[in-house]
Amino acid sequence: MNEPLAERLRPKKLEDYISQSHLVGNEGVLTQHIKKGLIPSIIFWGPPGIGKTTLANIIALTSERPFYSLSAINSGVKDVRDIINKAKQSGGLFTAKNPILFIDEIHRFSKSQQDSLLQAVEKGWVTLIGATTENPSFEVISALLSRCQVYTLNSFNKNDLESLLNRAIIKDEKLKLKSIKLEQTNALIRYSGGDARKLLNIFELIIDSFDSKEIIINDEIVSSMIQNNAIHYDKSGDQHYDIISAFIKSIRGSDPNAAVYWLARMIQGGEDVKFIARRLIILASEDIGNANPTALVMANNTFQAVSVIGNPESRIILSQCAIYLACSVKSNSSYNAINKAQKNVEETGNTSVPLELRNAPTKLMKELGYGENYKYAHNFNNNFTNQEFLPDNIKGTKFYEPGNNSRENVQRDFLKNNWKDKYGY
Length: 425
Prior knowledge:
By secondary structure, the protein is of the alpha/beta class. Helix content is 50%, strand content 8%. It has helices at 5-8, 21-24, 29-36, 52-63, 77-89, 111-123, 136-139, 142-145, 158-171, 186-192, 196-208, 219-225, 238-252, 256-268, 273-288, 294-309, 314-326, 333-348, 363-367, 406-419; strands at residues 42-45, 67-71, 100-104, 127-132, 149-152, 179-182, 214-217.
């Protein structure tokens, strides 16, 4: 049996699992669940090749539970029901040993397929572990999501990936027979795109290309052997992230030609049109914002349209939106404002709400001064009164700085006219 290196090296216990200490470290939440033998239904969210499947297998092995696995790419409602029936027949309803049902790429399941899981999860017939590279808030139905804990798996850093390579050299029975020297790892890591499975597969491919047992690996050797690796679009790997990044940066840089090119690359590669549309919504607010509020409306309508239309016509709608956003005036002032405000909250903590701004639904609250001295803006000329709305310790702090464009210059004039010199507009 010729198993690939990534499969041969797959960890079987938590101690061998690299990274994700927030989940599987000594005080990690999953470590505590496993110790107690109480595993909730879980959605693992993270980039490809980060160890979602491996972690599901380790949980099943460590907790000594039956393990069933499905891939959302080639499974339907019947497959789900067949496994649920097997799980029910294995006994142990509402016990700590109910079977684990692992579903890879659960975001690819339709609503009806996800609906078929609800009763089994709710009744405790199975413990569901789903893996997804997409935001579960968008791709997993709310009824199922509410029954699961969502755990985010972080991307591997360079040290993590180098540790994997060194472990392979030391522990793999096949590689131990060779003398392998890793002089450089930058090219290996770059071509893998942070995907551990892809990294090990590339590494094994390069090792197998040598006839001798004395092998030296450096960036030049790797690049010469894998030079055509990045030509194809891999919607589950590094190209998925690299090309969407180029697409967004082209729109931000007001280049509709580059935007349409990268859009075409994604469409030709079979990228999920809803994923593209979601990124356009984010860009419309982050990079255009109040400089052109219609951009957000346009992007949101695009998402709704492609959700209904599907391929191949969605490409036209996405192209129209991408070109519109690329040609729009840009501003990141709203994005900067919330970043500054969140940083301030982190630094100043849970500051008390001023009494005059508090709600006073009860007599006691009114007696305590809640809402007293609040000035109702509509009772004043131009619907404005100079009242302090921030806590005492940060009053006068400016978070929003309007961008230099026609719409936000109007906002700047409005704010300056009302607040005078208070915020420095």
